[in-house]
Input
Amino acid sequence: MNIWIMRHGEAGFNAPNDAARSLTDNGIKNVISQGKWLGEYLNNKQIKLDKILVSPYLRAKQTLETLITGMQAVNFSQSFASLTEEWEEITPDGNPYVVEDYLHFLREEGAKNILLISHLPLVFDLSQRLTSNQSNVQFPTSTIAEIHWVGNKGEVTEIKHT
Output
């Protein structure tokens, strides 16, 4: 299974609570750039996503929408609506063990390519968990890390920062 773990784009702090923070103009620009890169990358490898997991926080949902815009700009043609699952377990305080269990389930159901958009510290903790603490991926905003995950052991195969 290939898992692309992405941290949301840069978000502002002018919001009534953490869940309501929205992307900044710079965050949108960087996520579009990442979307173009990811769209070209998946096109070149002829990969279609099987599932997209996104945090219910506003900045994560905006990141997904903006990422798709960038992917479509490079003619990555796939319908995302039926693939997308908003999941409360991938908020900043999410448990990487619970996420790993769900990824096992998705793999058993036949999923091969998963995109996950979340927050620190979960994205860092999850990458550590999936690679058995072998990969110390830093996650500035908009970063995407690809993990090739076989059995219970994963390896980071690509990291893309903006």
